[in-house]
């Protein structure tokens, strides 16, 4: 998750591995976007910049979303609506799974403690769907449980289907895209879903040999994008007053855009 807390130990493993995608060649342009967290206005502005930047370039132009579309920011429901809609003309969009997206799905499926999820940023997500927890009275835990059950029944089927099909990673000949990062010493093909969505210190503090590909990720917020030979980190805390950032990846290198 974005922030200081790590993966909660009480989460059960997934029943089946999440999908992984591979492209045999590099697209002409890739625009990799960091954690949105409900900041729909930032996302729309950034897409406008992407369209202006790439509109005259022929070939495959791919927008890769690095996960965490929901929680903490003002309009998670609006972000999912936007991502379900077609990509801008001339572009393709590929959305990866973030740990917050996975947690929302687990909540709807009934495998997450609602009170813990609310601390995780879920109250803002509920509000974006029209559920206001600010004025609960009486038995709060029972009231929250009732609201979560109602939310799970009424969540738009298109949003639920979108969350269910999100892949955990994308591989191209030069780059590896995922939400959180990878575990050093493990081949990219053998990375666990847990690490792809949650890893922090082992990945961020790695000083050894470079990975098989440059890792493009979000998950761990910073004031500005982090760029090194090992990795490019793109979570710049849009939901807490920072910017939403994108790495523009082309044959001539990587350039950062932010709004």
From TrEMBL:
CDD domains xref list: MPP_PPP_family
Highest rank taxon of the organism: Bacteria
SUPFAM superfamilies registered for this protein in UniProt: Metallo-dependent phosphatases
UniProt cross-references to Pfam families, sorted A to Z: Metallophos
Domain Calcineurin-like phosphoesterase, first and last residues per copy: 30-223
Gene Ontology MF annotations: bis(5'-nucleosyl)-tetraphosphatase (symmetrical) activity; phosphatase activity
Protein's GO biological process: RNA decapping
GO CC terms, sorted: cytoplasm
Cited PANTHER family: METALLOPHOSPHOESTERASE (PTHR42850), ZINC-DEPENDENT ENDOPOLYPHOSPHATASE (PTHR42850:SF4)
Protein name, as recorded: Calcineurin-like phosphoesterase domain-containing protein
């Amino acid at each position: 998750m974005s922030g200081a807390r790590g993966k909660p130990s009480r989460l059960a493993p997934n029943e089946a591995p999440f999908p992984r995608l591979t492209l045999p060649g590099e697209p002409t342009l890739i625009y990799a976007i960091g954690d949105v967290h409900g900041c729909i206005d930032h996302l729309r502005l950034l897409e406008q910049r992407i369209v202006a930047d790439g509109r005259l370039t022929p070939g495959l132009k791919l927008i890769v979303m690095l996960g965490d579309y929901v929680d903490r920011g003002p309009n998670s429901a609006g972000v999912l609506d936007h991502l379900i809609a077609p990509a801008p003309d001339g572009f393709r969009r590929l959305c990866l799974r973030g740990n917050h997206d996975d947690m929302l799905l687990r909540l709807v499926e009934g495998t997450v403690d609602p009170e813990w999820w609310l601390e995780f940023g879920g109250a803002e997500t509920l509000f974006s769907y029209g559920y206001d927890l600010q004025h609960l009275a009486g038995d709060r835990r029972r009231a929250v449980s009732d609201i979560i059950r109602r939310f799970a029944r009424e969540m738009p089927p298109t949003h639920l289907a979108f969350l269910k099909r999100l892949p955990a990673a994308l591989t191209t000949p030069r780059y590896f895209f995922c939400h959180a990062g990878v575990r050093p010493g493990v081949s990219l093909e053998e990375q666990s879903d847990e690490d792809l969505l949650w890893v922090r210190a082992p990945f961020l503090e790695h000083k050894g040999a470079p990975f098989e590909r440059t890792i493009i990720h979000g998950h761990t917020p910073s004031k500005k994008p982090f760029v090194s030979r090992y990795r490019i980190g793109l979570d710049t805390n849009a939901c807490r007053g920072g910017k939403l950032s994108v790495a523009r990846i082309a044959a001539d290198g990587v350039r950062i855009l932010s709004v």
